[in-house]
Amino acid sequence: MAGMKRVVGLALLLLLSSVLFPVSASDWKFDPSLVHFYLYGAKTCPHCRHMKEVIPETYGADKFTYYELVGNSHNDEVLNNISRLIGVTGVPVIGITYNGTLVAVIEGEYKVSATPEIVETALKNNGTLLLLASGNYILPHNNTKAREIVEKLQYLFTKAGEPSETSTTPKKTHTTASETPADGTHTTTNGNDKRICGPALIIAIAMVPLFPRRRR
Hints:
Layout: H1 2-20, E1 35-41, H2 46-59, E2 64-68, H3 73-86, E3 93-98, E4 101-107, H4 115-124, E5 127-132, E6 135-140, H5 144-160, H6 197-206, E7 208-209
Helix pairs in contact: 3-5, 5-6
C-alpha cells in the first residue's frame, strides 16, 4: 500500500509540474548521456536489489554507482550524514545528477522510466528535488542556504562514498565521511558536534514544498 501511494504521489507531482511549468518539445530534450545515478543500498533489501538491476539495465552500467551499506561502516556513516541533512530513514536512497549537477534525491524504489520528467521538473524549477517518504520538496538553487545543502548532498553522493566492487566507478581509498571537500562544505558523524543540528534547522527554512497547498 505504501509503495502504491508513493507511485501515485510521484505521478501526481509530475502531472502538476507539466501543468504549472509547460515545456514544448523544442525547449528541452533529455540527454541520457548526461545523467548519472548514485545509490546507497543494502544487499538484504529487495527494493535496493531491484533498483540496482533496473537502473544499469536502462541507462548502462557506466551511468550507475552503487554504495553497499552491509559490512561497510564508512558508507553507513555517509548515509547518516545524508539523513541528518534531509531526514531520510530508509533505503534505497538515490541521488540523480544531470550534467554534473544534483537534480534529485529519491528515498525508496521509484519508476526509473520517470527519470526524464524528474530531471525536467528540477531544471524548470531551478532546484534539487527531494522525493522522500515524508513528502515531495525542492531545494531552490537561488536560495543561499538551500544551495549550501545541495552542495553538501552532491559531495556525499558523488565523492564521499566507497563504491562496491560491482560498481563501474573506481573505489576510493582516501576519502572519509567527515572530509571537507574542495568547495569548503563539511559534514560530520560526531553526535556531540553542534554542526549536526545546523543542517536540520537550515533545511526547515530552505526546503519548501514543491507544490504549496492553497489556503482555504
